[in-house]
Amino acid sequence: MDALATSSAQAGMVIIGAGHCGGRAALALRNLGWTGAITVIGDEPLAPYERPPLSKSVLSGETGMDAMQLAAVDAWHEAGITLRLGCRVNSIDRAARLITLDDGGTIAYRSLLLATGGAARTLSIPGAQHPRVLSLRTHADAMALRDQLRPGARVVLVGGGFIGLEVAASAREARCDVELVEGAPRLLGRAVPESVASLVQALHAARGTRIRCGAQPVEIMQRDDGRLALLLADGSTLVADVIVAGIGMAPRLELARACGLDVEQGIVVDSRLQTSDAAIFAAGDVCQFPSSLSGLAMRQETWHNAETQACVAAANMLGAASSYGESPWFWSDQYDHTLQVSGEPSLAASCVSRVPGEGALLLFFLDQDSVLVGASGFGPASVVTRDLKIMRKLVEGRVRLDPAVLADAAQPLKKLLSMMKEAA
Known about the structure:
With 424 residues, this protein is of the alpha/beta class. It has helices spanning 3-10, 20-31, 57-60, 65-68, 73-78, 139-146, 162-173, 194-206, 254-258, 303-317, 381-397, 403-407, 413-423; strands at residues 12-16, 38-42, 81-85, 89-93, 98-101, 106-114, 118-120, 133-134, 154-158, 177-182, 210-213, 217-222, 228-232, 237-240, 242-245, 249-251, 267-268, 280-282, 287-290, 297-298, 329-334, 337-343, 350-354, 361-366, 372-380. β9, α7 and β10 form a beta-alpha-beta unit. The radius of gyration is 23 Å and the shape is globular.
């Protein structure tokens, strides 16, 4: 046996990224029977936690860190999982299967998982470095923002995507004065159809958020009274106590690029989440993987993706050959409303609408053979939650459906689900 084979046999499983995906993968490795060393490395000082509450219940103070953590602090130690927190990786030596940390230490790996996630995009305009221009990606970010959400505070949000809208809802519920600016002609331009986006905008407007689309920020200045002024390209100015940049995240690809892995919009992996190096896997926000529906390359920044890819990656790190077969799915809760998208609506040849109740809209996306390839819905959670769950299962079943039945709100979706199960 050569030196590399000997060192690899003695090395453990190493995960770079101590977020939701990395933490879930570590727990899965142990649950799947791996008895060797597991090391999880992350630059945040906190044990792995889930991020969806950051823009909602964490800002309101309803959810603390204990409720967000994947496991109690003691549970990691009891499982024999080493957490190297507040620590950065400087480099990956693929030939030696060795990573070097920022303190000069090294760790050998048998298999390596890159679950490095992403970093919040920041505004690139003059004045954007002001300490009251915030973003939201980490628990520390949420704590800094929560301190600013006082009744009467003037909050300006830049970005009409999910983060911007969820923070807008949280700020209004904290009785802040809220204004949101979006550079595109409408909200949620890349995420949902215009008919859904219009309902979302109407909800936020009704709850008191002022929304400007087609508005481009150009500069941030501090006024004599201590407040901030956001100058827009049309010459108007918005006054704020705090400005929040909700303009998305950038996947953290630096390590993958530096060690020579294939990288495009994310770290390129196959259906088993294996990179161009057989000993290295990637999962979660950072990886570009083939869709189980279309085979097209995609990258997903969702809770569901992090949760499910972590388990597949863990199994394959141990020698399995499991393909990732989950259908895309994400949700956003805003006030008492919920929005969901499942499947790949972009594959559709036609779209069918259903209106199940006031303020609610369900959309079904069908291919040229009337096979359901995607679904989307928005409305009060009390009205649409059950239908959205059924729609997701129908998408996953890849069934052929009658457009007339889909459009008729009097026809229960549950009946279609029963028919699908009987056909299977």
